[in-house]
Design a protein that fits this description.
The structure is a homodimer of 85-residue chains. Chain A is built from five helices and no strands. With 85 residues, chain A is mostly helical. The first copy, chain A, has one domain: Cytochrome Bc1 Complex, Chain D, domain 2. In chain A, helix 1 crosses helix 5 and helix 3 packs antiparallel against helix 5. The radius of gyration of chain A is 12 Å and the shape is globular. The mean pLDDT of chain A is 92. Chains A and B meet through helix 3 of A and helix 3 of B.
C-alpha cells in the first residue's frame, strides 16, 4: 500500500502543475486532491504503460516513466488523502 | 460553452458509476465533482478519440461515442460546477 508521508515527499515534482495541495486553477490540468486512490494509481500506470496519449500525456509520461510501483502507490495515497472526498 | 443545467440533465447515464453528485466511493472510478471544466472536456474527447485505452476505457468509449461536442461541453460544465474547487 501507499504511504501518505512518503507520497508528500515525492510529490514535489508534481506540484508545479497540480498545485501544492493537489488543486490547480490551470483549466487543462486535473485537480488531484481527494481523488480516489486506486483511480490515481491506475491513471499513473496508464500513462506509464502508454495507455493515455494526446493532450498532456507526453508530459506525464516523462514524469512517470521513472516512478516505481511504490512511488505510484505513495503518490496516490498522498493525493487521495487531501481535501474533500 | 457548456450549460450547467443541460449537463445535469444529460448526466443521468453517468451517475451510476460516478455518483449522483459526481463523488463516488468505488475506488477505481474518478470523482468528477469540482474537476476543472476544460480537463473534463479534454478527457471525454480523449476517450472518444481512442487516446485512452486500458482500465475502464472500453466502457467509457461506449458512453461517449454518441456524445456531441455540446453534450461534452455541458457535462464538463455540470461536473465542474459541483462541490469543492
Amino acid at each position: 500500500g501507499g504511504d501518505v508521508a512518503a507520497g508528500k515527499t515525492k510529490s514535489t515534482r508534481c506540484a508545479s502543475c497540480h498545485g501544492a495541495d493537489g488543486k490547480i486553477s490551470i483549466p487543462t490540468y486535473p485537480n488531484l486532491a481527494g481523488q480516489n486512490e486506486v483511480y490515481l494509481s491506475n491513471a499513473l500506470n496508464a500513462y506509464k504503460n502508454g495507455e493515455r496519449t494526446g493532450g498532456m500525456a507526453v508530459v506525464m509520461v516523462g514524469y512517470v516513466r521513472s516512478l516505481s510501483d511504490q512511488d505510484i502507490a505513495d503518490l496516490a495515497a498522498y493525493y487521495a488523502s487531501l481535501g474533500e472526498k
